[in-house]
Amino acid sequence: MARAAAHATLDRNRLGPFLTSVALRLCIDFYRDMDRRSRLLQRAALIDAPLTTEEDVCDEDFGRWLLSQVRQLRGREQEVILARAAGISTAEFARMHNISLKSAEAAFTRGRARLRTACSQSLEGRAV
Q1: Source organism's superkingdom (predicted)?
Q2: What is the pTM of this model?
Q3: Which of 32, 80, 87, 88 is most buried, taking the most CB atoms under 10 A from its CB?
Q4: At a CB cut-off of 8 Å and minimum separation 6, what does 56 contact?
């Protein structure tokens, strides 16, 4: 607020309305940030809050569909994708399964490419 009030080109006759506007915008930014954080926590399932928006319902449905696609992957690809979804890094996955990092990264890349293809094919099927 002090920096805004001390701005060189500020019209001193409009100082009150200007500072009011700055204060309102700061409040709006604060509450937008709080709302964004709340939505991120809901998506991360760190809190139990009911889904309220259409976007949340769509995200949950897409997540179920994507998980069903992951379960159709074979072997290492499925394992590494599920591990990454659980928050395990590719390097940690490689160490846990006693394979090279390059092998784990390759399996992750192949699995991700197959999921991307499945998603594209699904979208093309819906557009027809």
Answers
A1: Bacteria
A2: 0.54
A3: 80
A4: 42, 43
Residue 84 and residue 111 in contact, taking contact as beta carbons nearer than 8 Å = no
Record the tokens describing residue 22, joined without a space: 């700055």
Choose between 127 and 37: higher pLDDT: 37
Q: Indicate the residue type of 37.
A: R
Contact present, 112 and 78 (Cβ < 8 Å): no
For 61-74, the pLDDT digits (tens) are 888 888 889 989 99
Q: What is the pLDDT of residue 1?
A: 65
pLDDT digits 0-9 by tens, 12-68: 787 788 778 878 888 888 888 888 887 777 776 655 555 567 777 888 888 888 888
Q: How far apart are CA 85 and CA 73, in angstroms?
A: 14
Instruction: Give every CB contact of residue 59 below 8 A, 6+ residues apart in sequence.
Output: 43
